[in-house]
Amino acid sequence: MAQAPSAAVFYFTAITPAGQTIHGTVSATSQNEAIAWIRDQGNLPVRAEAGGGHDRWRARFLALMAHLPLRGRDLRRTDVTYLTRELSVMLAAGQDLDRAMRFLVETAPNRRVRTVMDSVRAALRDGRSLHAALLHHPGSFPPLYAGLVRAAEAGGSLPATLDHLAGMMERERGLVATIQSAMIYPAMLMLAAIGSVVLLLTQVLPQFVPLFAENNATLPRSTRMLIAMGDWLEHDGAVLLAGALCMVLLARFLLKRRGPRLWADRMWLRLPVMGTLAREITAAHFTRTLGTLLMNGVPLLAALAIAHDVIGNRAVRQAVGRATDTARNGGVLSLTLAESGLFPARTVHLLRLGEDTAQLGPLALRAATIHEEQVRLRLQRLVALLVPLITILMGAMIAGIVSSLLLAMLGLNDLAQQ
Fold first, then answer.
1. What φ, ψ does residue 48 adopt, rounded to 5°?
2. 312 lies in a domain?
3. pLDDT tens digits for range 232-269
4. Same-domain pairing of 84 and 219
5. Nearest to 369, CA basis, from 144, 166, 174, 182
6. Is 87 part of a structural domain of the chain?
7. Which of 89, 139, 312, 358 has the greatest number of C-beta atoms within 10 Å?
8. Within a domain: residue 342?
9. How far is CA 247 from the centre of its chain?
10. What is the DSSP letter of 170?
């Protein structure tokens, strides 16, 4: 008489209908039975492996971590760009989607990428479409990404769409890298300037205070002010830092509210120098997103809805929302954007030309290219202006401190000669 197979403990990872990753254990006689049990619970199985008792504690720990509000499980932007480029190349070369996804899982650069791609592949093998599988990871694949993939699957142009999407993400990453690289040197120079002044006031200048006190010297007003400022920084510097931290936290709290955030975003765009740069960056992001969506077969209203969601500035988002309503009612999109006063004139002109010639997608991409180049040029000019300006200010502050100290020393010299 054949002996019935004994039950074993299977450690599993699955995705709930809400898109959350869960971990746990189940007692089953085989892996297929464990997977069937996971599906009966309404979850999407990612893996089920036989294990011992130690996996129970591991499952409980991972289940606890899965409910913590951490973003560490989401893929970085660079990872998504790399995966998109690799997938587009393999699909264009004739590979089927399952084999391409298996290759991405096997060659994943880290465990986080491997886990996400393994989950997407499991959803595909379970009969779901690619865009539906990506929606289980909204932190890694935003609505723009999933919307483009959905349009590509409907039109049968997935390899070309992924290639365009990878190109768009690479250009966005290049623009962000340009902004970050341009701001690093002025920021470091500013920190060096502040550090030098603080060091002079709290460490160098106090060394001369006993000398002045012993000689009962009458110090110049500027020297007395610097000594008082140094004493305040030395004794109450922690209060200053705490106050600055409280101001930052208060600003973050206020900016989470709709009214203050909308006002701040609108004022940011109207600043003389930084506002112009911010408008160019926002226009480049909006036109690049809109043009890419339209060129890949997404309808105008759907493309505007996605572009609305990916814009961070609330004032611009409000203007795009009004433009979407105008387009829905058969009006002219570019006129509504022009009335907001938040977009550069070049953006409005090219979008109006695109509407008149039925080439809104290509001209939106052309506008994005022009705006990105304008951002690079304005950043170069801004850095060329900031670096000497910060250097001059730092030199002036240090010169002021040293000159005040020299005036006090000259006063001591006069006393010695009397």
1. -145, 115
2. yes
3. 887 777 787 888 889 988 888 887 888 888 888 888 88
4. no
5. 174
6. yes
7. 89
8. yes
9. 23
10. H
